[in-house]
Design a protein that fits this description.
Shape: elongated
Largest sheet: 5 strands, parallel
Strand content: 5-15%
Radius of gyration: 28 Å
Number of strands: 13
Oligomer: single chain
CATH class of the largest domain: Alpha Beta
CATH architecture of the largest domain: 3-Layer(aba) Sandwich
Number of helices: 16
Number of domains: 3
CATH topology of the largest domain: Rossmann fold
Strand order of the largest sheet: 4-7-10-3-11
Mean pLDDT: 81
Structural class: alpha/beta
Distance between the termini: 50 Å
Low-confidence stretches: 70-74, 79-84, 104-126
Order of helices and strands: EHHHHHEEHHEHEEHEHHEEEHEHHHEEH
Helix content: 40-55%
Length: 432
């Protein structure tokens, strides 16, 4: 999709008209974006564009918006001089429009005229501030947080280099403090995430000091460095008690409620009694294993505030001939059966098989990962497990002798020696 600055202006007008703020308000927004702000900036040698609708670099718009809130800056004086912070309100409205517009079009937008920086796929804003990568186990969610983080930190759609090269850059960002990482679990709390009290013994006396959690730490750093994006990765986000961990901050992470926006929300933290807002340049990337909890059962407040990116098994990434075994067909067949017997959220990810090079490798993957996973999914329902595996004989009924009483129900045993035979795996996907 190719679009001109004139088209962007018309789309912005339509977007504003749908919000019922009045004709004069719409006119003020357009005037400031087309004339007042560009004129002021050109006078200071900071802009060559005739209109802000010509700027396709969202980070430039964000920079202007952020500067309207700073006291030592010519743009701040301009904001006061025109009254009611009109330029800042216009920029805030335009940023929200860009987010809605690019998100709706999936980032597939190009400008037909651009005096500053051309875009090939999408602006930085399409990388949503809050997102969760969700899917069954082994689909590469945590693995993908490296690339997702770099796309934000390096302001690019597709980070360059191999995963090893990307990981080096990612680790450097972590060293610099621009990436934080935390894993939620059932015991994780607000005090761990935001702030809490820590007992300190001094001169035989116990005192309590406020200790910052990882979220508050990285928020403060990001707020003091508004020109750079920051990322906090929350692994296994669905395993924590969201209302207990986030508390009142569940509202503050919304894009419109963040610092400097039109609907900014500021709270007083319970322990430090400090005023707190979430900065606009802090991105939250969560991962969620749907085998642990269905998306339908997710905390409603979290679902409303995060964009969800689905990661499903990709058997096509696996070889069709690995020492005579079609790994692609193997995984595809098992997942079709799991989906029919259980659901798609409990399928098996391709990542388990990515490093399989020999039958011995495959046997270890089945022994240590696949079979325990199936046993967990279909707890003691051996018939269903056998249906997933086909006529392999991996599980057979266990016979008891001299019990002195008839056994209650069936008991099964695993025949691990069959896992070293390539024909065992072929029997999973080949027609009987």
């Amino acid at each position: 999709m190719t679009i001109s600055p004139g088209d962007m202006e018309q789309l912005f007008k339509q977007w504003r008209e749908g919000r019922g703020t009045g004709e004069q308000y719409e006119k003020n927004c357009i005037d400031d974006l087309k004339d007042s702000i560009p004129t002021f900036l050109r006078q200071h040698g900071e802009l060559s564009s005739q209109s802000l609708f010509e700027i396709d670099d969202e980070s430039k718009i964000q920079e202007l918006y952020d500067r309207c809130n700073q006291t030592i800056d010519p743009l701040h004086g301009f904001s006061n001089r025109t009254g009611h912070h009109r330029p800042r309100a216009a920029l805030g409205n335009y940023l929200k429009f860009l987010h809605d517009f690019f998100h709706k079009n999936g980032g597939s937008v190009q400008y037909s005229k651009s005096p500053i920086i051309g875009i090939s796929s999408k602006s930085q804003l399409t990388a949503s501030l809050n997102r969760i990568l969700f899917g069954p186990p082994g689909t590469g969610k945590t693995y993908s947080t490296v690339e997702e983080s770099l796309s934000v930190l390096e302001k690019t759609t597709t980070p360059t280099g191999s995963f090893a090269e990307q990981k080096v850059r990612f680790d450097q960002f972590r060293t610099e403090g621009r990436v934080g990482f935390v894993t939620f679990h059932q015991s994780f709390s607000y005090e761990d995430f935001v702030e809490g009290l820590r007992a300190v013994v001094e001169n035989g006396m116990i005192n309590y000091e406020v200790e910052f959690g990882i979220f508050k730490q990285i928020s403060r750093i990001a707020a003091n460095d508004p020109s750079n994006p920051y990322v906090l990765i929350i692994d296994e986000i669905n395993r924590g008690n969201i209302s207990r961990i986030f508390g009142e901050l569940i509202t503050l992470i919304e894009p419109t409620k963040r610092a400097g926006n039109s609907e900014t929300v500021e709270v007083i933290l319970p322990y430090s009694r400090e005023k707190f807002t979430v900065p606009n340049n802090l991105y939250l990337i969560g991962t969620m294993n749907t085998a642990d909890r269905s998306l339908a059962l997710m905390d409603t407040a979290l679902r409303r505030r995060f964009d969800f990116v689905e990661f499903m098994p990709q058997p096509e990434k696996l070889p069709t001939d690995m020492e005579g075994v079609n790994l692609c067909q193997l995984l595809m067949t098992m997942n079709q059966r799991i989906e029919a017997l259980y659901d798609r959220e409990h399928t098996i990810g391709h990542a388990f098989f990515m490093n399989v090079k020999t039958i011995q490798d495959l046997a270890l993957v089945f022994q240590r990962n696949i079979l325990p996973l199936l046993e967990e999914y279909f707890f003691e329902d051996w018939d269903k497990i056998s249906q997933v595996l086909g006529k392999t004989g991996i599980y057979t009924e266990k016979q008891f002798n001299n019990l002195g009483f008839p056994p209650i129900g069936k008991r099964f045993q695993r025949n691990d020696h069959l896992l070293n035979d390539k024909s065992t795996y072929r029997r999973i996907y080949e027609a009987p």
